[in-house]
Amino acid sequence: MEGFIIALFVCLVLALISKYLSVPAIPFYILAGIVLGKAGLGIVQSDEISQFFSEIGLLFLLFFMGLGLKLDRMIADPSKLLTAGIIGLIVDMGIGFTAAYLLGFTLLESFIIGTAFYITSTAIVITTLIENRKLMMKEAELIIWLEVFEDIVLIAIIALLSSGNKDLLYFFLKIVLALGVMYAIAHYGKEFLVSILDRDDETPILFTFAAVLTTAALAIVFGVPDSMMVIALGAALATTDPEAFEQHARPFKDVFLVMFFVFFGVTINFTAGTDLFSILILCLLAVVSKFISGMLIGITIYGSAMSGLEIWANTISRGEFSIALAVLYGSAVVGTVIAALVIFTTIVGAFTAKYSTWMRRGLTHHNRRKALMHRPHSSR
């Protein structure tokens, strides 16, 4: 319990520092866990209490992911958006998977690392767009849609990894049945749900908390992955009043998710056969892969390398979902790799997102000077 209190106090200090510096707090939380845990000072241990709170944080993260799947966030031209999403999927996951496999990781480990290469941090991307006042730029809408596309792909990946060696047909039938029940409750009980959310007492918060945890518990009872069912719950409730559910669930997510990041760092062990050179290569390639996919998307969709640069600058950061994959399905080595990946890309991404306008201006000025130098002189 003492370790949990220490971790909570350290996180409070780090949250204040990150807000002051206007940088994402996630890498600081992970680093704090590494310093306090087995890889560092060893004063904080992962126990049943920390694991319980970390699991709650993960559940509410996945619940928010489901709430974020709103059709009104889809935009005008689906063919272009599908093209952009597929480019990112093929390039980022392809580079991540290939690099990991060539560096000696197993097929499953390479697949998880490749997925972590592909999945950016929705929270960080949206927050940086807002804080850097970029929501009005032409690429912002596409960037937000790409986050939704990644969420949909991630749900499919979680379903695939959760099935394991089970009978796939039976497994997906149970998933579809559970989805049907949730959507039926959300559709036919919409008025009742909205009436609960409109109350000004503690009932909406208790209902939201109970709904998430009860869904996770029932999923375990019926042999369905709780991660999938909590995402499905969020997607079903998004058809009622998602803003109200987000408001009531946010305190649980914000507090418990911090503990999830910290105690993920606590469990990191750099002596678990991790090759630091391989980690460095993967971290650098994670930035390069987003550059390649961003440039291809910018040129394909907008016919502009500058748009590609903007997309790259704002989608480098990996975060909460990459870590969730490592916790749910990764080994100790994969966890260490993804922790380093998240720390490195969020730090790099914070600076590229903040200074992308300067980079674009610099490149534009350079191209103009280059064009003037190569312009033929007129003869008199």
From TrEMBL:
Answer whether the UniProt record assigns the keyword Zinc to this protein. Answer: no
One Pfam family for this entry, by name? Na_H_Exchanger
Q: Where are the transmembrane segments?
A: 49-69, 81-104, 110-130, 142-162, 168-186, 206-235, 255-272, 279-303, 323-351
GO BP, one annotated term? proton transmembrane transport
* UniProt subcellular location: Membrane
List, alphabetically, the InterPro entries matched: Cation/H_exchanger_TM (IPR006153), Na+/solute_symporter_sf (IPR038770)
Question: Which molecular function terms from Gene Ontology are attached?
Answer: antiporter activity
User: Which residue intervals define the domain Cation/H+ exchanger transmembrane in the entry?
Assistant: 9-350
Could you list the residue ranges forming a coiled coil in this record? none
As for family, the record states: Belongs to the monovalent cation:proton antiporter 2 (CPA2) transporter (TC 2.A.37) family.
Q: What is this protein called?
A: Kef-type K+ transport system, membrane component
Give the species: Methanoregula formicica (strain DSM 22288 / NBRC 105244 / SMSP)
